[in-house]
Amino acid sequence: MDISLSIFLFTLLFNSICFASAREDLLFKRAVNDFKNQQYEKSKDEFEQLTKSNPSKAIYWLNLGNSYYELREYDDAVESYQKVIQLNSPLSPVANLYIAKAYRKQKKVKNARNFLNSIDVQAIPPNLKNVVIEEKVALQSTEKEHFLDKALDDYHDGDNEEALDNIISFL
Questions:
Q1: Which of 27, 76, 80, 155 is the most buried (most CB within 10 A)?
Q2: What's the chain look like in SS3?
């Protein structure tokens, strides 16, 4: 192969890689900006594009999950956050936190508690440590609501003993 042809092909390949990377960076910045501007549907679409073209980038999956979360599409959010964990990303503790939040929103208290308890607080960024504490408090409140709702249901169903057990669990 002629040396000038080799140089030309290398230059063409290099420029293609740089262009793709620049396009990816631009799309990421636009998606983050849309998210900050509460344009969650747009940011979701953009992060979906990014995860399709770069399925091994956990930051894209985490942000896609955040977009779904804000759109109250909690099942899809959990699925996206779980991709972060599957990638063995350093963002996994953050993904666990947001999975717990999504499960709490769905009133899946036991699942939320399991994910919240699995978080290594030392691995959480300092700015999110308070969020973990707040989530624990919010989950306790949700658990109490769950026991009271269950107690009322049991009472209306005539199961007074079970209703009493749920009230005791609440206290």
A1: 80
A2: CCHHHHHHHHHHHHHHHHHHHHHHHHHHHHHHHHHHCCCHHHHHHHHHHHHHHCCCCHHHHHHHHHHHHHCCCHHHHHHHHHHHHHCCCCCHHHHHHHHHHHHHHCCCHHHHHHHHHCCCHHHCCHHHHHHHHHHHHHHHHHHHHHHHHHHHHHHHCCCHHHHHHHHHHHC
Q: Which residues contact 40 (CB under 8 A, 6 or more apart)?
A: 34, 67, 70, 71
- Distance, in Å, from the CA atom of 155 to the CA atom of 86, rounded to the nearest integer, reads 43
Distance CA 170, CA 122 (A): 31
74-88 pLDDT per residue, tens: 999 999 999 999 999
Please tell me whether the overall predicted TM-score, pTM, comes out greater than 0.85 for this model. Answer: no
